UniProtKB/TrEMBL annotation:
Superkingdom: Bacteria
Protein name: Agrobacterium tumefaciens protein Atu4866
Native species: Mucilaginibacter rubeus
Pfam families the record matches: Atu4866 (PF11512)
Amino acid sequence: MTKTIEETGEYLGMWVTKDGHVRQELLHEGRYDEARGNRRSAYRVTGNHIAYKDDTGFDADGEFSGGVLYHGGMVFYKENN
């Protein structure tokens, strides 16, 4: 049986737009940091779907597909350190 990315935790880590302008780090316990601000926000992954909600009440969603995160009209690639 194939594990989902939610089970393997492959979505954790730094995701960046191709131009490097927007950086988003997905953290354990459903938290994330985004480089455009210093406010910590929450996310939840269900299957290949991600739902975001920040502390100001903003919410959004996205999808993981083929190792790429599609969110808010942007395309994120996982950064490997």
